[in-house]
Amino acid sequence: MTDSPGTDIIVVGGGIGGLALAAGLRRHGFEVTVLDRDTDLRRTGGYHITLDPRAQQALAGLLPPDVFERLLASSADGRLRDPDPFWDHKGRLIGQARTASGVPGIDIDRITLRVLLAEAAGDRLVLGRTFENFRHSENGTVVARFDDGSEREAGLLVGADGVQSRVARQLAGGPTSRPTGLVGVCGRTPRARLSQDEQDRLGTRSSLAVGAHGTALYVGYLDPGAQAVLDAPELSMAVTKEPIYIWGAMFPESEHTGQMRALSESGLRDATRDLLRSRGWGERPLAVLEHTDTQGIAVFRFNAASSDPQEQAPWPAGNVTALGDAVHATPPTAGMGAGVAIRDAAALVEELQAARAGQKALRVAVHDFEGGMRERGAEAIRAAMKTVNWVLATNTPAGAALTRAALPVLAGLHGLKRSSWSSWSG
Ligand SMILES: Cc1cc2nc3c(=O)[nH]c(=O)nc-3n(C[C@H](O)[C@H](O)[C@H](O)COP(=O)(O)OP(=O)(O)OC[C@H]3O[C@@H](n4cnc5c(N)ncnc54)[C@H](O)[C@@H]3O)c2cc1C
């Protein structure tokens, strides 16, 4: 193994974490090449990404100031949203978050974020190249092999190849995450397509509706035009041009959800709606599905890595490492996965700078980076698994009975609270 990052670093995976890493490395004068199997950066899930303050701070250090400014002009400010409500499966209010969206995160289109990161990463981005495996050469460098038979040699190889990472799998000797038992179907619905009544109910905020039998429906709100973090429309690269709701239906994995994976567009929308109906969902909360843009609708499994930091990145530190979902796959239920991948990237850039300056050997720098990553990853997985476990618990016979009994009571109590409040304030 060589003792410095060398002149060349290879990043496998040009998703959120890989491109953020390449942007930061480039900014600090490293030679870095990113390779991704995708042939078009824009052909990625069209949903929104929440970036908490720690991820925003990491990005400010990784990106050139002008790109960061465009990112802020393309993002919606979470602080401008009303507090997030909780609904039941009939569309009745059962609770309200205390503060507006908890943390002051910002929301950005996934495509916009990826395109901005790619710009900052520079032109050494090779698309249409699928990584197969790696080996070490006699002089200790690492050689990555791709599906077209080509090979690339580098001083450091970083796997940023997401949930089904081949790099992390080879390092760990097996998969680094497993299915949680929940499946999600996501889509985007322009707000204007909903009735005025439903627009008023959902409002300009995000919400979560829960039902029995392991079903839930997240509805996020995105309007980077009216709620921009930086009011500079001329800099905005937001893909979302009108207010939209981004919805994500969740339900337990079954033979039926397996069959849904073969469906697309309106077939997938109809199957999702029918499944929720069969679990007792009312028509009102399903309106957002009914009017969805069928083109962007997609089904995916929620995978998660272990929430025990000691079980993450279970390999000795060396000149092959990994970051982001490749190591700590995180279900989308906490909105933290992308932010943690970005913070991993910032931490690795810092460690590699220390190695280049001769303050520590490369192996030590990678070791220190992996230590911090385990803690970050475990925190995000624990947060995301709270919702996953809660939704799954409603799918047991006792959980379903309890949910069926509790939801109308909670809705009634909330209704009472609201009417007594209006009589006090009125
Ligand atoms: C529907 C949905 C909504 C989400 N919403 C949020 C949110 O609001 N906030 C949030 O923080 N997180 C969210 N997440 C999670 C977030 O998208 C991921 O955690 C984040 O993208 C992880 O970044 P990454 O770089 O590790 O992996 P990815 O961004 O998934 O990138 C992996 C890249 O590796 C490439 N790749 C894979 N295998 C190979 C190979 N063999 N060879 C070459 N390239 C390869 C892929 O093409 C991809 O570009 C969401 C996820 C989903 C599915």
**Shape verdict:** globular
Mean pLDDT: 90
Low-confidence stretches: 1-6, 419-426
Identify the quaternary structure here.
single chain
Say which molecules are bound, naming each kind only once.
flavin-adenine dinucleotide
- Strand order of the biggest β-sheet: 6-5-14-15-16-13-17
Main beta sheet: 7 strands, mixed
Number of strands: 18
CATH architecture: 3-Layer(bba) Sandwich
CATH topology: FAD/NAD(P)-binding domain
Note the gap between the termini. Answer: 74 Å
Number of helices: 13
How helical, in percent, are the residues? Answer: 25-40%
- Look at the structure and give the CATH class: Alpha Beta
Radius of gyration: 22 Å
Strand residues, percent: 15-25%
At the fourth level of CATH, the homologous superfamily is: FAD/NAD(P)-binding domain
What structural class do you assign from the helix and strand content?
alpha/beta
Number of domains: 1
